[in-house]
Amino acid sequence: MQQEQSPKKSPDAKYTTPFGLLALVGELGFMIAVPLLVMAFIGVKLDKWLGHSPLFLIIGMVIAAIVSSVLVLQKVYKASKDAGL
Q1: Which tens digit of pLDDT belongs to each residue from 33-56?
Q2: In whole angstroms, what is the distance from residue 28 CA to residue 85 CA?
Q3: What gap in Å lies between CA 71 and CA 34, rounded to an integer?
Q4: With CB atoms counted within 10 Å of each terminal CB, which end of the chain scores lower, N or C?
Q5: Averaged pLDDT in 10-residue chunks for the chain of 85 residues
Q6: Distance between CA atoms of 5 and 25, rounded to whole angstroms?
Q7: Is 64 exposed, middle or buried (0-12, 13-18, 19+ CB in 10 A)?
């Protein structure tokens, strides 16, 4: 007797299901939030230590925006490539 083999999902189909898309949104949220929070914390501490008001906070936010943008673009490019778009 032959057993029916269940169709295996390819790893390329990770972001094509609703839960896969929710996972992608969650990953993107962390890629934006973590650099923002880390750089805000560092910027505030540097401002207090060196006596500058918002200088290092603003510099940190710019760096966080650049890092987040690069991370998000890389992730979206990879996800769209894996999904075959």
Answers
A1: 999 999 999 999 999 999 988 999
A2: 18
A3: 11
A4: N
A5: 54 71 88 94 94 91 95 88 74
A6: 32
A7: buried
